[in-house]
Amino acid sequence: MNILGISAYYHDSAACLVRDGDILAAAQEERFTRKKHDASYPASAVAYCLREAGIGPDGLDYVAFYEKPFIKFERLLLTYLSYAPVGLPSFMMALPQWLKYKLWLKETLAKELDYNGPMIFPEHHESHAAAAFFPSPFDEAAILTTDGVGEWTTTSWGIGRENRVSLKSEIKFPHSLGLLYSAFTYFCGFRVNSGEYKLMGLAPYGEPKYVDVIKRELIDVKDDGSFRLNLRYFGYMAGLRMTNGKFDRLFGVSPRKPETPISDIYMDLARSVQVVTEEIIVKMARHIRKETGMRNLCLAGGVALNCVANGLLLREGIYDDIWIQPAAGDAGGALGAAMTAWHHYLDKPRDPASGRDRQHASYLGPAFSDDEIGKFLKEKDIAHEKLEQAEIPSRVARLIDGQNVIGWFQGRMEFGPRALGSRSIIGDARSREMQSVMNLKTKFRESFRPFAPTVLAECVSEYFDLDRESPYMLLVAPVKNEIRRDLTQEELGRKGLDKLYNIRSSVPAITHVDFSARVQTVSRDDNPLYHDTIEEFRKLTGCGLIINTSYNVRGEPIVCSPEDAYRCFMRTNMDYLIMGRFLIDKKQQPPVQIPEDWLKEFAPD
Fold first, then answer.
1. Which of 391, 407, 403, 371 has the alpha carbon at shortest distance from 533?
2. Is 15 a domain residue?
3. DSSP 3-state assignment of 508?
4. Which residues make beta-bridge pairs with 165?
5. In this predicted structure, what is the pLDDT of residue 598?
6. Whether the bond into 85 is cis, omega within 30 of 0
7. The pLDDT of residue 605
8. How far, in Å, CA of 53 to CA of 234, rounded?
9. What's the rounded Cα separation, in Å, for the pair 57 and 36?
10. Residues 6+ apart with CB under 8 A from 85
11. Per DSSP, what are the bridge partners of residue 323?
């Protein structure tokens, strides 16, 4: 039985194909259209899923959409009426899309897909909860979903047991932890729904000076983690801004303009809202443990991508273990909707836990064979060397040791926002210069942004205060004291972005300014080639981890195809690209004239 899950029309649209309860394929539309956070109907992602399944639309038994559009429109309409006429401009901007296709979603999907079979529409947070629990390794678990807003719900908790997810309690719009965090994202000069991870990365550079102000003026937090926002300071209910003039006056500063220097106050605001967010998540987790008695916790929703909070939650020891959906945001709703159809609507049983999750390491996107890659290289007359499969690990390990930056394009593309060793840029974490080199010359992004390591799963406890695998790069952990470096008095006195220049450990390129790292572990079972390459690097250097960052530049989605990978390779300062068995040396490539519009959009000064 084939079930297609779809999420679309807000941000990060995606498709997922579940066959007989197993996740066969999943991908975000942005990877195919090259439009970051593409919200349109995921035509290319759907086509990929059907192609991977070897079927056409007539081979589908059910289609599941990740939320209920009429209830969402109800929220939009009632919110406008509550604030009228203030919200008229934003309402008029949204209305055409609703009248054109969102209100007639069943007909829209049937037409786009050329499909006339049954469709189901779970609620938004039901899809998140299903995506959190059903692929998890747990027989039963508590569930917490937190995001900006679904239809009305912004936070919910419940229980997953056997083939059922049951939500017990919720917080509704306009009170939203996700929207609070996005308000600070906007205020600090980053883009809402894409820049929240930048705010998280910026937070350790600041001091938590405004925690008390936030808790006194902006959000009332109860002991059980429930909360209410003081709506006088926010504009998202009816306007086109996340915050308003009262918010500006509260902190004595206006919103930072994008691309301008980041002054101390914005760093302090980032740190302060991160601290408040962590406090709320921990309080909610304690309350849910008390109410459910569950030993394990599953997380989804956009706030679940806050890996700093996730790491703290794990270290608090409230639960024996936690599992976070790798595509925790709206893209993962496609997966959750399909799993809801299988388990809830069709009442199909869930296989008992095997000790590993059912997410297939999130390698659920398209793969390209050596024949396909070779054909592309030949057609474009691209100089390359074809390696034997067995020599790839040692060859690439030597290149990393030689301080080269390498594009790594192997196997099935990852589902979710993180590169996990299929579409990655890799480098030497021991290098003192590699963070700034890769940020400014390869990724074209802000210098303060930390890089993540991929570490051999069997070696993780040698480098980090972490006693388990973290395959999806969704846990931040402290770097072990044994590999930290004592800072000098001069270094300890540095403030703000100057902290970036402190050499903090024996692997400085992946050690953030607070001595933490966003850890990805890799096991040989999940990704043998990637694992073997890092193992060869360990044999060569004694270091069992490397830098792993997503294969893209700022403002662009992660690459999907060989053409995407080569184009990105040629427009950046990467030294080598390994695609399948084909090694491409930048020095052997002709000079490339980079289009001015591309430089303006993706590589600003």
1. 391
2. no
3. helix
4. 160
5. 61
6. yes
7. 35
8. 46
9. 27
10. none
11. 298
Do the beta carbons of residue 59 and residue 113 sit within 8 Å? no
pLDDT of residue 539: 98
Residue found by looking up tokens 């719009």 in the block = 173
Tell me, yes or no, whether 44 lies in a domain: no
Judge contact between 452 and 583, C-beta under 8 A: no
* CATH number of the domain within which 428 lies: 3.90.870.20
Give the side-chain half-sphere CA count within 13 A for 292.
27
Query: What range defines the domain where residue 386 resides?
Result: 370-602
Total domains, the chain: 1
As a whole number of angstroms, the distance between CA 97 and CA 234 comes to: 25
Q: Which residues on neighbouring strands pair with residue 363, listed in sequence order?
A: 414
Contacts of 461 (CB under 8 A, 6+ apart): 467, 480
Distance CA 72, CA 63 (A): 19
DSSP string for residues in 25-70 = EEEETHHHH--TT--S--HHHHHHHHHHHT--GGG-SEEEESS-HH
CA distances (Å), 255 to each of 94, 205, 217, 247, 264, in order?
Answer: 24, 18, 18, 9, 13
Would you list the DSSP string of 509-525?
Answer: GG--TTSEEEEEEE-TT
Tell me how far apart the alpha carbons of residues 14 and 37 are, in angstroms, rounded to a whole number.
10
Give me the phi and psi of 4, to 5 degrees please. Answer: -100, 125
Amino acid residing at 535: E
Q: What is the CA radius of gyration of the chain?
A: 23
Could you tell me if residue 447 is inside a domain? yes
Note whether residue 536 is domain-resident. yes
Dihedral sign from CA coordinates of 120, 124, 129, 134: positive
Walk along the chain (605 residues) in steps of 10 and give the mean pLDDT of each run.
Answer: 96 96 98 96 98 98 96 84 73 76 88 96 98 97 97 97 97 97 97 92 96 98 98 86 95 95 96 98 98 98 98 98 98 98 97 84 98 98 98 98 97 97 97 81 75 97 97 98 93 87 92 96 98 98 97 94 97 96 97 69 49
Enter the DSSP assignment of 440.
Answer: I
Token pair of 287 as six digits: 């309350």
DSSP state of 320: S
Write out the H or E segment, with its range, that includes residue 95: helix 88-97
User: Which residues have CB under 8 Å from 87's CB, separation 6+?
Assistant: 79, 80, 237, 238, 239
Task: Select from 257, 238, 255 the least CA-distant residue to 246.
Answer: 255
Query: Alpha-carbon distance 281 to 298, whole Å?
Result: 13
**Could you give the CA distance from residue 229 to residue 303 in angstroms, rounded to a whole number?**
17
Rounded Cα gap, residues 100 and 95, in angstroms: 8
